[in-house]
Amino acid sequence: MKFLKTLVASTLGSLLAIGVLLFFGFLFLFAIAAASDQRPPVSAGSVMTVDLRGTLPEQVSGDPLTQLILGESAIDIHKLTNAIEAAADDSRIDGIWIRTGGMVSSWATLETLRRSLLQFKESGKGIVASSTVHFITEAEYFVASVADSIFLDPEGVFEFNGFAFTSTFYGGLLDKLGVTVEVVRAGNFKSAVEPYTRTDMSEANKEQLQALVDGMDRSFVSSVAASRNMSEDQVRQLMDTDIMFFSRDALDKGLVDELLYEDEIQQMLRGWTGQDADEKLRTVSAANFASQIRAPRATDKIAVVHITGMMIAGSGSTSPLGGGSVAASRTVAKSIQQARDRSGVKAMVIRVNSPGGFAPAGDAMLREIQRTAEEMPVIISMGDAAASGGYWIATGGEYIFAERNTITGSIGVFSVFFDTSDLLEDRLGITFDHVATGPSADMFSGVRGYSPAERAMMQRSTESTYTSFLEKVAESRSMTVEEVDAIAGGRVWTGEDALKIGLVDELGGLDAAIAYAAKRAELSPDDVQVVRYPGMKTFVEQMASSPLATVRSMTELQDWPLASEMNTLTNVLAEQGKPQALWPYSISIR
């Protein structure tokens, strides 16, 4: 019997080892094949296809394995806009075909893309747009509206009914579970704690969120009106009153140009590019085209350091639940140091895409930015969000760019603590006892609430951090603390509104920030090399450095509807009782 058990165990172990070797062998062979794959040359008379599916990330690794296994996009927003710019000057490209298909990127990213497409049109080349999934949303139409012609299939669905933002609240659930949430905050608009303490929005939170929705609505309406040769009142009338849901309605109202199936669009494009009807349409994907663009090599360099995700202390790049990025203080500081010390770097652009997080972590990043500013110009480029702690680190730059729909501001601080004693003791029968050297030694144990003295201490700590925040902003923006406090209080602003109140200097994207940095360094934007930090890890590198996080990413937990909220909650719990400069909402306005 013992022999049989040993035999079975050995056989199973051998089979498992063979399976693991075969799996990694397959990955190795696939990586070699992908690395050796030569992109086909771009043919004259080609149409560049811009496929808009899912999100357009800030950075991609370009690793085939990461794309295959983790679902990474083949191109990021910056490579895409560079490809569009290069296509305008490339005689082999006759035009662009935008193909939407379930795009969920934020409005600031879409604005960056739309602006690059408008610049492409100045070359005299044409753009057409269609949907590959027979459905188009306002976000997709915002981009597609730049096209000379918009096509939908005859039975397609067309959403054009305005914008809304829905927030999830857990206050009722926590009450039922017997979890008490202890909160202290500085700023009437600091709504970061509301999902855990309320069942609805406060009036202050509704006010700021309504302002965000209204700002995006204005941007959408003015852009569509200009592209479709309509008045803004006409566009608003169509959204508010003449509610549409089918492509035939959109055609009748002048929002699309023709109802065609994809084969008919291809036939039209053959005529556009001078091809015979029976030829295969000559196309090149934006990702393929971008891979063939050779970045200029120059002695003088401008470093772009990406700070993406919720700010936490320590090292790392992915959240505990996988799928989401975090900005870890040591990792970010190291990237800034490496960029600063690289030979030939004359200026730095800090690209911020963060809702904030643990205030001391943000301050550690700010310190490295300030050290860099002592040696070279430092410019801030705000992406989708640079709010709360994201704005904290922006105070280290001498000039700030933001998109019209960047979410920024949220200058405020809170501390939150979860008391689980009722849940554990009264409902689950789990009890606690302890010994301590002082009455407050166990205040962060999570199994009792704060005493009045402890709450007062937490309030002082939170207000002290808020005062420090105000002072940093005041010094950076040449304002008084009182002037900053009047526009702070935790309130969020769009980039357009932030420009009006002095929190940003200019509206524009990363390219504008790089050009400004070159100017400050007395360099020509055309004669510098842009280097980006940190470098994105390949799948193998991710497995080597953080196998558990990589496996979590492979489970695609990020596609779970509440994954974003759970990632935020996980990080808040990790720093509970400590000052947070955080705008926690994942803004998805539809």
Topology (SSEs and partners):
Blueprint: H1 2-36, E1 46-54, H2 64-70, H3 77-88, E2 93-103, H4 107-121, E3 126-131, E4 135-136, H5 138-144, E5 149-152, E6 157-158, H6 171-177, E7 180-186, H7 194-197, H8 203-227, H9 232-240, H10 247-252, E8 258-259, H11 262-273, E9 283-285, H12 286-291, E10 301-308, E11 310-312, E12 326-328, H13 329-341, E13 345-354, E14 356-358, H14 359-373, E15 378-387, H15 389-394, E16 399-402, E17 407-409, E18 413-419, H16 421-427, H17 452-477, H18 481-487, E19 492-494, H19 495-500, E20 506-507, H20 510-520, E21 529-533, H21 539-545, H22 547-554, H23 563-574, E22 580-582
Helix pairs in contact: 3-4, 4-5, 8-9, 13-14, 17-18, 21-22
Structural domains: how many = 2
Mean pLDDT over the residues:
84
Poorly predicted tracts of residues: 29-37, 550-561
How far the N terminus sits from the C terminus, by CA atoms, comes to 65 Å
Tell me what the CATH architecture of the largest domain is. Answer: Alpha-Beta Complex
The total of beta strands comes to: 22
For this structure, what is the CATH class of the largest domain?
A: Alpha Beta
Specify Rg, calculated over alpha carbons: 26 Å
Assign the structural class, choosing from mainly alpha, mainly beta, alpha/beta, alpha+beta, or little secondary structure: alpha/beta
* DSSP strand content: 15-25%
Q: Approximately how much helix is present in the residues?
A: 40-55%
Annotated CATH topology of the largest domain: 2-enoyl-CoA Hydratase, Chain A, domain 1
